[in-house]
Amino acid sequence: MATMTAAQRREQARVAYDAFLRDCPTNQLLARLSDKWVSLVVAALAAHDGPMRYSDLGRRIAGVSQKMLTQTLRALERDGIVGRTVTPSVPVRVDYELTELGRSLSGLLVAVKEWAEAHMDEVAVARDRYDQETAAV
Amino acid sequence: MATMTAAQRREQARVAYDAFLRDCPTNQLLARLSDKWVSLVVAALAAHDGPMRYSDLGRRIAGVSQKMLTQTLRALERDGIVGRTVTPSVPVRVDYELTELGRSLSGLLVAVKEWAEAHMDEVAVARDRYDQETAAV
DNA sequence: CAGTATCCTTCATGATACTG
DNA sequence: CAGTATCATGAAGGATACTG
């Protein structure tokens, strides 16, 4: 190893990183779940009894763009977490709802969201103290 | 305000801290928590009894760069979720551990991480089916 | 209504090098 | 050991316009 060139070390690092990704699909899944829009979409669907329409979700989740909403819903549909039902009326009607798999997840994500809501004050206090101490130095 | 009932005050607090609302501080906090590195750092600290050193964390979390590890730890320290202890020896020793607040959160994030580990197979199957159906069209 | 397509900007991340 | 500093780049995300 001591005779490795920098290029060889870089190559080995790259391969090791790729291997890590390949052998650990769980990390990719965790990265998907660790997404603000995913949390909000799943929480919105969990909070609402029955299916929600595309525009309902857009209205409920203030600040989400059409692009991100569609993108997030597609990813969640692909992962089997939400179901999508198209009613070919005029105009078209599309409903989204959590699947069985999605419901097994939603409680966990909702808990994180509610933790954020419940502990916002404590975090704000901690930030103020940190900023004070940091500025003092 | 003096005529507000406790229920009304709670309701107002709930609305004010609704994570679904844009520009709500809770929304920003949720975005912070919805971070792959945050999940992994908190999970690593939660899994390990007692404090962990910077290099321990770097080794445990494969694929994290120094920059992201430091950045994540600083943010978590600022938010009062992890504590940082410097021992001015030579060489310097720095230990990180979850605070009380951090422990109240860690269980939730660990649950999400374990959900990802437990349901990876189902998600993989769902993806295959989705890709099949999509390609068929 | 429920998207798609495109452009464009900023921001997050990684690689690299340096330090008390 | 535990960082900090700097740079480069790709990708995330928003704005806008269009469509079946």
From TrEMBL, chains A, B:
- What highest taxon heads this organism's lineage? Bacteria
HTH hxlR-type domain sequence ranges = 24-124
The record ties this protein, via InterPro entries, to:
HTH_HxlR (IPR002577), WH-like_DNA-bd_sf (IPR036388), WH_DNA-bd_sf (IPR036390)
This protein is called what? Helix-turn-helix transcriptional regulator
Residues in coiled coil: none
Q: Which UniProt keywords apply?
A: DNA-binding, Transcription, Transcription regulation
PANTHER family (UniProt xref): HTH-TYPE TRANSCRIPTIONAL REGULATOR YODB (PTHR33204:SF37), TRANSCRIPTIONAL REGULATOR, MARR FAMILY (PTHR33204)
Give the source species.
Streptomyces beihaiensis
